[in-house]
Amino acid sequence: MINVTIWNEFVHEKIHDEVREVYPDGLHMALANGLGGEGFAIRTATLDQPEHGLSDEVLNSTDVLIWWGHMAHDRVSDEISQKVAQRVLDGMGLIVLHSGHFSKPFKALMGTSCDLKWREANEQEIIWCVNPSHPIAEGINGKIILEKEEMYGEFFDIPVPDELVFVSNFQGGEVFRSGCTFLRGSGKIFYFRPGHETYPTFYNPEILKVISNGVKWAYPARNVKPEFGFSEPVRSLGNVLV
Amino acid sequence: MINVTIWNEFVHEKIHDEVREVYPDGLHMALANGLGGEGFAIRTATLDQPEHGLSDEVLNSTDVLIWWGHMAHDRVSDEISQKVAQRVLDGMGLIVLHSGHFSKPFKALMGTSCDLKWREANEQEIIWCVNPSHPIAEGINGKIILEKEEMYGEFFDIPVPDELVFVSNFQGGEVFRSGCTFLRGSGKIFYFRPGHETYPTFYNPEILKVISNGVKWAYPARNVKPEFGFSEPVRSLGNVLV
Amino acid sequence: MINVTIWNEFVHEKIHDEVREVYPDGLHMALANGLGGEGFAIRTATLDQPEHGLSDEVLNSTDVLIWWGHMAHDRVSDEISQKVAQRVLDGMGLIVLHSGHFSKPFKALMGTSCDLKWREANEQEIIWCVNPSHPIAEGINGKIILEKEEMYGEFFDIPVPDELVFVSNFQGGEVFRSGCTFLRGSGKIFYFRPGHETYPTFYNPEILKVISNGVKWAYPARNVKPEFGFSEPVRSLGNVLV
Amino acid sequence: MINVTIWNEFVHEKIHDEVREVYPDGLHMALANGLGGEGFAIRTATLDQPEHGLSDEVLNSTDVLIWWGHMAHDRVSDEISQKVAQRVLDGMGLIVLHSGHFSKPFKALMGTSCDLKWREANEQEIIWCVNPSHPIAEGINGKIILEKEEMYGEFFDIPVPDELVFVSNFQGGEVFRSGCTFLRGSGKIFYFRPGHETYPTFYNPEILKVISNGVKWAYPARNVKPEFGFSEPVRSLGNVLV
């Protein structure tokens, strides 16, 4: 069983009526419900909890962490951010959603600004699969259409993804690398673009399917613990002085 | 003309006789002399200079920065490290040599531990080209043999390189991804493995050729300044409310 | 000086009035004129010439071949197609334009069907740069807008490109990986999507700039001739029996 | 259950005593036995069978094909080779072992010469994992040591692999990209270097583990059937004339 922790900053939902209408119990609860049928062991965590809900105990028992944040990235402590990034390097999977592109853990793991273009205009997004045999695209038939979403546009300042799975078309003319995977240390990261807080994106079955696929893909392989440091030769060095 | 700044921590050479014998004026001067015939405008900078020799003026007028450090990574200030990383994201090329894999700017740009296996045993390294049409391999005929070098072994905990140019074979049985390129922001990074301080590696013409090729490759293309932030639609949204 | 050969099947222009109106002397002549200011040594070749204009002498003295074909792919002989592909593996650069995705040499070098979605509907294409520091994007400011082009849509059945430089947005909702590089053998390949025969795309200065950049990028590095076959050990095998 | 077909040219074992001693029933039977505990549904096929044992019925009911060939590549018919390559593009997984690098289906899918350096000298090969979180490396602890193998050395003339999983060190000084994955069409390909016919490599539990991992990795995702050809707009083109 995969232990999934869904982290949501959970601020918009408390202070913006239009967001609360869409996600009355918070984005994290919509995700938890939406992923509930997959057999994952799901917990949630939010910014205002002690240690943002991400104690060592929680992090160490999490196989895959899902992250949504937007207006309160700065309120996530450096200490917890570093612990999250370190756990990824040690093998925990990480699914970063939408505005999580600017979260501290994601930026630290990418090493770049993670900046992009954006526009809130209720416009149509069409998410195309460019890697149909990838396990994250399993069950998706070519494309996903979202009638209203925020626009994110290129250039998206990330390292070249290890795998590009989805690319979005926006009505206003932009494109965006919407589904990107990255290996970092022993951990696997999947960035997935959609999910603005004012739209019901996280109730969409195809979006939930992709996130669920992402969780399964990012689930850490067992026995991954590379050795580092001083190392004896495998093969005799003969007359070489060590 | 390419403005190159060669940064060396310049500590070993002052306190270890065996290093000073090989590089009496410092590694940076050997590199400066070795690259002198390429027509670069070369400056050097070292740890003990004010701002480690990397003032805003120096950084802003540097096209490509070469970095060698080993025993004093921690003495490089966080402020200067961040400025270096930011300049790379803004377009400055970066050549990281050997033990610079553990330098603060490189680690920040990679987002991983950058750890590896190592051994000092005077053993032979053979550096093979696995990407013969890459400009960094220009003039190298298949392989470079170094009779004595420190061993670095896999797993090298870096992100998957954008391009793999060289792979090393060590006498004791290890392999290492020795020549790796990375795009980060608007900047290009080349990591090149050889160059332990007790060996005359930086007098080797083929090693100098690769570093020189790397400088030319990392030289920033002009007119690269991506736009970010709010963006008007390129194409009319029709009846969509913005 | 870079020796460029521009190959055009040159059939549409002879039999379709609307194409001849746009390219009265053939697409190849528009390209030759448009690239004329770059200092290349330019020749052209067409299907109906002996050996399709691609004799051994022409191929062997070509540094970079530009290829446009559409309705007569099958009329290109297997022999010449194989020679073109072999020359690429031996180091010649190749720029494949638009409907050249279905040409015999490109398909042989890719190993896939190279199929895609398409539509001729006079719709707007916006070509976005997703790799701003790439030399092929030099001088392009974020995007290129073509008011009317044929649509090509994903899934584009190519191997994962070594580098993705441009991605297109089409008015009807599709996206396409429009600028892709591939290394094959000692040769460099750049596929660039735009250029339907009924539109004046090859008079567009930005399109010509990208093609010109592509030629410079694909220009073969010197001294690339890998060795293959039986190989003596570099390092003594000691007591091992060879 | 994964339907695996193991194809072996099965010539060496019939005519070379030293090979028959190692693989008295053929390499394919050693592989079939070695993979038997994984729960795969395993069939074998060999060159001398009608249609080389690869009838349409067999190919169409094969999820993953394992291929070993060496001295009789030319005796595999073009027709069957093309069917194998097409089935890979249509989604069948393919595991190519050792000298299969020169097989017709692999070369057609790669588009390159697939040439390399080689030497038969009973020398030690150490296969290092450079991608420890990859599912194909699951259960492998850093490296695999084979006391005697044929040497394969770089440059290996393949396209840049989509993923590099293993790199080999040979006693004589060479390196080789030993574990490489490629996506082609809807199919997944894993090339794995070891397995010369005169050594008991295919009895080694770690080698069998990697091949078994490869089979599971290459098992085709369901529902992958991209659409191609003429395509109606997803989004209204408004006043644009179609």
UniProtKB/TrEMBL annotation, chains A, B, C, D:
Coiled coil: none
Record domain ThuA-like: where: 3-218
SUPFAM superfamilies documented for this protein: Class I glutamine amidotransferase-like (SSF52317)
InterPro entries referenced in this protein's UniProt entry, alphabetically: Class_I_gatase-like, ThuA-like, Trehalose_catabolism_ThuA_prok
Cross-referenced Pfam families: ThuA
Name this polypeptide is given: PalA
